[in-house]
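Q: I'm writing up a methods section and want to include an example of the input and output format. Could you take the sequence below and give the corresponding predicted structure tokens, formatted cleanly so I can copy it straight into the document?
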Amino acid sequence: MIVSAIAGLLIISNVLWEAFETIVLPRRITRLFRVTVLFYRFTWIPWRSIARGIQKKKRRETFLGFYGPLSLLFLFMFWAGSLIVGFALLFYSASRTASVLPTFASRLYLSGTTLSTLGIGDVVPHTPAERFLVVTESGLGLGFLALVLSYLPVIYQAFSRREVSIVLLDARAGSPPTAAELLRRHSGPIGAQELEVLLHDWERSAAEILESHISYPAVCYFRSQHNNESWLAALTTILDSSALLIASVENACARQARLTFAICRHTVADLAQLFHAAPRNTNHDRLPAEELQRMRTMLAKSDLMLRDDEVSTKNLNELREMYEPYLQGLSEFLFMEIPPWILSKEIVDNWRTSAWGRIAGFSASARQDGDDH
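A: Here is the clean output for your methods example:
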């Protein structure tokens, strides 16, 4: 009797504390053992493994896109189920003094109908302790439901704010976004001022991603609307662009680039730590010497001159070492692709496509429409 009561109290207290930390407490949790973390580990890793076996990218991304919303629903069901079991153990312990000893199955049924506030009445409490538990669990059930309903809007508001910033990059940095395309489209007479404004906006957007995704890690699993876009790809593009400006350009954008680089690097480093995604160095160089030279040549044709010397190249490589390993760790854990610095071939932007085909008449003059922003 005592053992079942202690087990029930431990289960209930742990679930309530987990729900408080996950929903109410808006800060990073450093506790080593967390049931919610184990839940996501034991569900995400198999889900990701199944996704690796799906060959078609569109179908794979659709499958991965289901995980974020479904994980929330299953997490709430897991919490509710744990509370039902915990209170069933307490009911079972409290009913040992009754004249007729009930089974654990009947106590589990009583706990389930009480937590869900159904109140069918075919199984009733017999002892004063059971009656007290019925009142407690029914009140807890109402509070738990209210807590869950208040949590979902917060999650989707954080997701919506993030996606707005990502979608705005479509016409400014391409689909998928790349540093080369972002800088090329911000050349021209007022391109530098527009680029400075963009970097300033992303300084705030990165801070919002850091705050919301640290407080509510489940948002990290939510995928973007388009298969060639993601919050990780957007942060990669901004980091790449900022690093290149810091190392190779001396103008007003360089100062804002430093500020934006700092907060974006802070974001990816903290999120990698949150998921225990250790920084990884791969044999694949995202920006080999020939690609860097090709990017410099392309940007020079758009009147954006970059320094081409050993010092700037060394500075760029040092900046890359500060964030690329964290991006790689997050990419492998979340199964999100990191965009290259420069695309190997021209790709039509998402805004130029639709379910009825691409916009006709895509010409070189139309391709320059983003250069004067």
